[in-house]
Amino acid sequence: MNTSTPLLLASLGTTVLTGCSASKQHAVTNDDQRPNVILLVADDIGYGDLSPYGEPTVRTPQVQRLADRGLRFTNAHAVASTSTPSRYSLLTGHYSWRRPDTGVAAGNAGMIIRPEQQTVADLFKQRGYATGAVGKWHLGLADKTGTQDWNGHITPGPSDIGFDYSYIMAATGDRVPCVWVENEHVVDLDPSDPIAVSYRAPFEGEPLGKTHPELLTKLRPSPNHGHDQAIVNGISRIGYMRGGRSALWHDENIADSITTKAVQFVERHAHEPFFLYLGTNDIHVPRYPHERFRGKSGMGLRGDAILQFDWTVGNLLDALDRLGIADNTIIILTSDNGPVVDDGYADLSVEQLGDHRPWGDLRGGKYSNFEAGTRIPLIISWPHHVKPGNSKALVSQIDLFASLATLLGADIAEGAAPDSRNALPSLLGKDRHGRDYIIEKAGSISICDGRWKYIAPSKGLAYNKLTDIELGNAPEPQLYDLKHDLGEQHNVAAQHPEIVARLQEMLQEEMGDR
């Protein structure tokens, strides 16, 4: 989508028309104020991990509180089933599979999103919004891998892609460096104890999880996952790190830090329009929630981390209510990909999972081509504009870019967000059909028209024994009738060659488009 939208959402007390080429335009009343927007992206939370999605074994009352006043989508999808490519597509409107460098990023990866690319944050900045990014980043920092100045100004960074303020983890909790980076500088760093990071070789004299297991006082890694390298606060990670001891985070305080910084950002900008990209660390590994949540879920540390995520949502909602801006704030709650139970640490989440099904009725999980890999929770709340309820509309995170551009009346730069389409009527509950098709990538590539899902042949592994997840790769074409077989148990490609041919042609046209 290269053309700018003529639509404008500004403080004019007017009615704004929103629409897309495939559907009628719909009216949304603007109440004299540009709405704040919070894009809350959870980490590894699956379709069945939240109360509004019907699993009786988990209770997330704060997410339910949001859902009760918002629209719950049951057919929403991420572009990929892992973090970095999913978040890249969400923020840029560009399919991550079109680039070869959007795989899961190391902690010292260079910026995946380049400064010359327009992002969702740029759209808001263009329209005069204060913009912030708080929490998990995992999109790289600095120009190239390994070139970060961890002891000075880390540039390029979030400020180069539209964010006025940032308080982020460089990557994820299981990858070094385990420090907070605020406005592109490491927080609480002692200059006399500089940070060094490597993903190639350990630093001499620094203990590792695999050589000093006695130092693993909080969590131990699962065998063969690779989380047995640098030790930070009693937990071993991926990668090697030296120094920066005064700046190291404590895992049990991560959610508190993210929540506090997010609420502070909202408080600072309560009297002006703001956009906040809030990425929680929950429920990604290593899962070591604050002690006030530990043991409370009955499902091990993974379940306890879900409760901690729910607490974050509740704090955010309380802040909006307290500041009197809840009615003028759009909250988009979603996840970057599907669930995984054992993803590298022996935290007893497998043993204590009980009857809980993080994937709900779906097959697969994180890393998978099957539905549980990319069908994710999506709840949108905008009081007085979005009618509470449920939607079966087929929607993809790739379309958030163009949809928010339409909402704002922002210009999409030439060549930017080429894969994003305006889905605002669907996101606001006016259109219950949604996209004609979605495309996803997780090893193989798939296309789904809402009923029929085609997974292209792949030489990849069919099963990941470390995570106990079916990956959905197969040497033959796969076709599933999701209307009658949501769990993707029956490959009917041989029975419906005409549907396979149609979806193959659609996929080939899309892949050759840009």
Question: Summarize this, please?
Answer:
This protein is α/β, with parallel strands linked by helices and 514 residues long. It has helices at residues 61-68, 83-92, 120-126, 254-268, 300-323, 371-374, 400-408, 424-427, 497-511, and strands spanning 15-20, 23-29, 36-42, 71-73, 76-77, 130-136, 165-169, 180-182, 185-186, 196-198, 231-232, 235-236, 240-242, 274-279, 329-335, 378-381, 389-391, 395-396, 438-442, 444-448, 452-455, 463-464, 469-470, 478-481. Strands 9-8-7-6-14-3-15-16-4-17 form a 10-stranded mixed sheet, sandwiched between helices. A 4-stranded antiparallel sheet has the order 19-20-21-24, with helices on one face.
Verbal overview:
The chain is α/β, with parallel strands linked by helices and 514 residues long. The chain has 2 domains: 40-186 and 258-427, Alkaline Phosphatase, subunit A (3-Layer(aba) Sandwich), CATH 3.40.720.10; 443-511, Arylsulfatase, C-terminal domain, CATH 3.30.1120.10. It is built from 9 helices and 24 strands. It has helices at residues 61-68, 83-92, 120-126, 254-268, 300-323, 371-374, 400-408, 424-427, 497-511; strands at 15-20, 23-29, 36-42, 71-73, 76-77, 130-136, 165-169, 180-182, 185-186, 196-198, 231-232, 235-236, 240-242, 274-279, 329-335, 378-381, 389-391, 395-396, 438-442, 444-448, 452-455, 463-464, 469-470, 478-481. The strands form 7 sheets. It has a 10-stranded mixed β-sheet, with helices on both faces. The protein has a 4-stranded antiparallel β-sheet with strand order 19-20-21-24, with helices on one face. A hairpin with a 1-residue loop joins strand 19 and strand 20. Helix 1 packs across helix 5 (300-323) and helix 4 (254-268) runs parallel beside helix 5. The longest helix has 24 residues, at 300-323. It is globular and about 65 Å long. 56% of the residues are buried. Residues 1-32 have low confidence and may be disordered.
